[in-house]
Amino acid sequence: MFKRRTARSLVAQFFSLIWPKMGWRRAISYYWHRLKRIPGTPESIAMGFACGVAASMMPFMGFHFLLSALFAWILRGSVIASAFGTIVGNPWTFPFIWVGTYKIGVMVFGIEHLTDDQRPVRTMFRGLYHSIQTFDVEMFVEQVMPTLVPMLVGSIPLSIIVGVAAYFIVLRPIRAVHKLRQDRKSARESRYASAEGRR
Asked: What is the C-alpha to C-alpha distance for residues 158 and 75, in angstroms, rounded to an integer?
């Protein structure tokens, strides 16, 4: 019923992630309006969104939705809002996130360079693809783990910082929207009560 008449190709779906058909400005506006209409308290919506943003900082491609939902469930946030938070992780931001988490991880370990590779993230993804394709455990250990471990360690403080920031950034406008909605509802009820009293 809600499916497209003509299914989009994988290439079209990929390019829609890079540049939405409606444009990024309208897409962000659309997601913001959807976020405001999610049922729940402003605190639960903001917490859910923050969990989605935090999950996007972690190097677990394909599992961000599950991680964000798990975090939101644990912290009593909105699971639906957590899905919106994962939008922060997209093809435009992932390269910066990956490099940033790797550099933070290297700093945490206190080692200037864990590998001699000048492009550790690229090497990691290349090794990950080939090791999964050929079931080569040795390649996974040699080419993936030296970069994945620092990225994972570095993603933890980054997730906390970005998640807390996202919570407070979203909380205030969500509260304002809910208050405006409540004031309008109270005004309608007041007008209705006045009309009933004059009858």
From this structure: 18
Q: Which long-range contacts (CB under 8 A, 24 or more apart) does 116-119 make?
A: 117/147
- Residue 17 and residue 51 in contact, taking contact as beta carbons nearer than 8 Å: no
Q: What is the pTM of this model?
A: 0.74
Closest CA to 151 of 115, 176, 198: 115
Q: Which residues are within 8 A (CB) of 178 and not within 5 positions of it... i.e. 6 or more apart?
A: 41, 42
User: What integer pLDDT is reported at residue 38 of this predicted model?
Assistant: 85
pLDDT in tens, 100-122: 998 898 888 876 555 555 577 77
b/e 176-188 (16+ beta carbons within 10 angstroms → b) = ebeeeeeeeeeee
Domain ranges in the chain? 92-198
Tell me, what amino acid is at 154? G
Task: Give the CA count within 13 Å in the CB-facing half-sphere of 185.
Answer: 6
Q: Find the DSSP H helices in the chain.
A: 10-18, 24-36, 42-56, 64-74, 79-85, 94-109, 120-134, 137-139, 145-198
